[in-house]
Design brief:
This protein is of the alpha/beta class. It has 3 domains: about 90 residues, 3-Layer(aba) Sandwich (D-Maltodextrin-Binding Protein, domain 2), CATH 3.40.190; about 80 residues, 3-Layer(aba) Sandwich (D-Maltodextrin-Binding Protein, domain 2); about 80 residues, ACT domain (Alpha-Beta Plaits). Helix content is about 30%, strand content about 35%. Strands 1, 2, 3, 4, 5 and 11 form a 6-stranded mixed beta sheet that branches. Strands 8-7-9-6-10 form a 5-stranded mixed beta sheet. Helix 8 runs antiparallel to helix 9.
Length: about 280
């Protein structure tokens, strides 16, 4: 199976893709929009995207892209994020003066960088891509923050491991397929939906109360502005379900309160987080 990811081989998205589909062929993309385009065009059979990090929060662009494309979530997984300071072989920690990585990864390693005042953080488009770049530069004064897999993939060396500020660092990833090809697991116990509300007082409270009456447990709610319509919003909700009948009932009761409602996917909830 060809799976599109945002980032280079060796990235956390690459790791998550192989966790979801063992032996998958990775289709690396520079931008998230290219990931969805690859899925739309058939250049990829599926896509894996990060949707939420336990420290940095939601990946907002991906909510917008989920709604803009005819795709469905068919599976999710949680990945423990371990950041490492990586350099070319022969480099030493005390001579590093620049550290490249994705802005989120740099932000998650602030204490380590602050403890080494000679290191200047430089934002880059991808964690694994920053390792790929420094191997190409062959500069012993440059380093990157990325995964252990990235260091191994590009033949670089880990100078310091586990440098993230908080060990409780997890990212939730979705496995996506084209809507017409998505097959739901009969054991699905989680539902993702997007909806907009009718314009009347208390409409959000009424919608959430309707779910509460069903006994449906919401695990996440996120709002995003509607482009071109100031002060109007789309709400994204994840909830636990007991089966297909409850999922259908959730959609039915929400229709009474929503101007638009769309099912984004039914899938098995990811297992518990890995404890250190």
């Amino acid at each position: 199976m060809k799976i599109a990811i945002q980032g280079e081989p060796g990235s956390f998205s690459h790791e998550a893709a192989l966790k979801l589909v063992s032996g998958a062929e990775i289709v690396p993309c520079a931008l998230s929009t290219e990931v969805f385009a690859a899925l739309d065009s058939g250049a990829a059979d599926a896509a894996v995207i990060p949707i939420e990090n336990s420290l940095a929060g939601s990946v907002l662009e991906h909510f917008d892209l989920l709604l803009a494309h005819e795709v469905k979530v068919v599976e999710e997984t949680l990945l423990r994020i371990r950041h490492n300071l990586i350099a070319i072989r022969g480099a030493s920690l005390d001579e590093i003066d620049r550290v490249f990585s994705h802005a989120v990864a740099l932000a998650q390693c602030r204490r380590f960088i602050a403890a080494h005042p000679g290191m200047r953080p430089v934002a880059f488009y991808d964690t694994a891509g920053s390792v790929k770049q420094l191997v190409g530069l062959r500069d012993k004064r440059a380093a990157a923050i990325a995964s252990e897999a990235a260091a191994a993939y590009y033949g670089a060396e880990i100078l310091a491991g586990g440098i993230e500020d908080d060990a409780e660092n997890y990212t939730r990833f979705f496995l996506l397929k084209r809507s017409g090809e998505a097959e739901y697991d009969s054991g699905s116990n989680k539902l993702s939906i997007a909806f907009s509300l009718v314009h009347r007082s208390g409409s959000l409270v009424a919608a959430l109360n309707a779910l509460a009456v069903l006994g449906t447990n919401l695990t996440k709610i996120e709002s995003r502005p509607v482009q071109g319509k100031p002060w109007e919003y789309i709400f994204y909700v994840d909830c636990q379900i007991g089966g297909a009948e409850e999922a259908d009932l959730v959609l039915k009761v929400l229709k009474n309160h929503c101007g638009m409602i769309r099912e984004l996917g039914r899938y098995r909830e990811a297992g518990g987080v890995e404890r250190l």
